[in-house]
Amino acid sequence: MATPVTYYCPHCETVVELQREGYLADKSVTPYPLEGWNYVPVEADYAADDADGVRFVCGSDGSARDPGADGCGKPFYLSFVRPGTTDAGAAVDPTTRPK
Description:
Elements: E1 2-8, E2 15-21, E3 26-30, E4 39-41, E5 53-57, E6 75-80, E7 86-87, E8 90-91
Parallel strand pairs: 4-5
Antiparallel strand pairs: 1-2, 3-6, 5-6, 7-8
C-alpha cells in the first residue's frame, strides 16, 4: 500500500510529496547529490534496485504537495540508505561507493 511521504526543499522549505511503499530507508535530503550515487527523477521508478535516491526540482517536477506552490526551481536530493552505507551503526564516507 502506497503512503504519501513529505520532504522539505532545503533551499526554500517548499513541501514535496512522494508515494512510497512499505519500509522507508531514507538517509538524507541535501541541496547537493552525494558523490557516486545514482539519482532518478520523481517520475522514474525510484524503487528500482539501481536507484540510490530521487532528484527533485523544487516547484517544477510536479511533486509539490500544494499545487499552488511555486518553489524555487533549484534541485535537491533524497538519498536512500543503501547496502554498505553503514558499518556497525557509523556512517561510511558517502564519497566512496560501497563494493
